[in-house]
Amino acid sequence: MDRSIEFHEVSYRLGQHDLVKQLSLQVQSGDTLMLLGRSGCGKTTILKLINGLLKPTSGQVCVGGQSTAQWDLIHLRRQIGYVIQEVGLFPHFTVTQNVGLVPSLLGWTPGQIQSRVYELLELVGLPPAQFAKRYPHQLSGGQRQRIGVARALAADPPFLLMDEPFGALDSISRVDLQQEFLRIQQYLGKTIVFVTHDVQEALLLGTKIGLVQAGKLLSFTSPQEFLASPSPEIQAFLQGFHQVAQVYRRLGQDRSGDE
Amino acid sequence: MNNFWNSYGAEILQRTGEHLLLVVISTGVAVLIGLPLGIAIARKPRLSPWLLGFTNIVQTIPSLALFGLLIPLPLLGGIGTRTATIALILYALLPIVRNTYLGITGVDTAVIEAALGMGMTSWQRLVRVELPLALSAILAGIRTATVIGVGVATIAAAIGAGGLGVFIFRGVAVVDHGLILAGAVPAAGMAIALDAALAWLEHRLHIRS
């Protein structure tokens, strides 16, 4: 099956503003594209154009080789796991019901759903015996985001859209989840579009990095190319990263000097 | 007192029954009409100012006037229970429509976005997400409608629909406080009892969800 995502000169206009301008890009099957940019640059809009929550004003978005205008959107969305920034768990559902939602929409049997939910809770590091029957308000922010990720993975969709899924986490939980993400992605091999404003996260998780500014794609590179790029926009983004690297090196030298 | 009960006891029970029937039927019908209307305007917000405006205007018409205005209408009007029921339905509509609308549109946008993004159909979103999350608001609307209904239904006696209002009108006409209280006390009790019953239901459903 074709698992690519393609944008052909896509624009999205809201009122007087172009939120996305003449955007073209191609995500290959199994790639993780990190859309990197400052807040308000149009990253989230790009995601919503992929699962048809928004329709392009002009141009064409193709998912799995077929334009979203031709897809039955309900059918399309059930093949695309979607993790949103605010998580959006259903407050009246237990963890099990939340995670098992798409499988239940697809008509799986309760037994199948149950075992799938348990498998996924293990995967995101929340012991099912402890968490399966809880309601979202009985979870911490980090646990909710894990459930959000588990819910998106539930029906094993070929595509995954993630909108700053680790945004609300403390740095330790974030590193934890990023490591898990890498591990999971290694054997799931999904086509992923991942929105972030964190350059470190983009370099760590992406196979491709797309730099977005004012609704335009400024660059589309591998993480290696990104690091080596002389482009001033990329350098501006890397500034903070270099600083951290510098501090890290300096502290490391100090310590070795002590010994 | 004993004497009063001997002469009016049976009629008080009969009028209370009539009154309860008026309120339950009209509120029930108002739920059947108001719930779909509330859902409809939640889905098509452009319609909401029109419908909410209409139900608001109905609410501002003095109840005695509304009963009177309905009498000359063909099919709907006339003297008696049917006209009273229609007026009571119109009164009950506003709180039910408005609370349904507010309950549904008040569901967290992130939750709605998640529901859409996961590929729920419009119907699945309504039944599995929006209505359950709007439930306590909807029940609160039904409670308000019921309590208003018990009060307004006392006026229905003016157009021959019976109910506890019969005592009140009779008591006012002959300046007999006992008679007025014979209508007013059971009506107040009924309002309190229905309100408590619905509050209990609301609480139970909330605990479950």
Describe it for me?
The complex is a heterodimer of chains A (259) and B (209). Chain A is an alpha/beta fold and 259 residues long. Chain A contains eleven helices and ten strands. In chain A, the strands form two sheets. Chain A has a six-stranded mixed beta sheet, with helices on both faces. Chain A has a four-stranded antiparallel beta sheet with strand order 2-1-4-5, covered by helices on one side. Chain A is globular, with a radius of gyration of 19 Å. The N and C termini of chain A lie far apart (57 Å). The mean pLDDT of chain B is 91. Chain B has 209 residues and is mainly α. Chain A binds chain B through residues 51, 53, 73-78, 80, 82, 84-92, 101-102, 105, 151, 161, and chain B through 108, 110-121, 124, 129, 132-133, 209.
Shape of chain A: globular
Give the low-confidence spans of chain A. none
Shape descriptor of chain B: elongated
Strand order of the largest sheet of chain A: 6-7-8-3-9-10
What's the gyration radius of chain B in Å? 20 Å
For this entry, give a set of tags.
heterodimer, A: 259 residues, alpha/beta, six-stranded mixed beta sheet, four-stranded antiparallel beta sheet, 11 helices, 24% strand, globular, B: 209 residues, mainly alpha, 81% helix, elongated
Overview in brief:
The complex is a heterodimer of chains A (259) and B (209). Chain A is α/β, with parallel strands linked by helices and 259 residues long. Chain A contains eleven helices and ten strands.
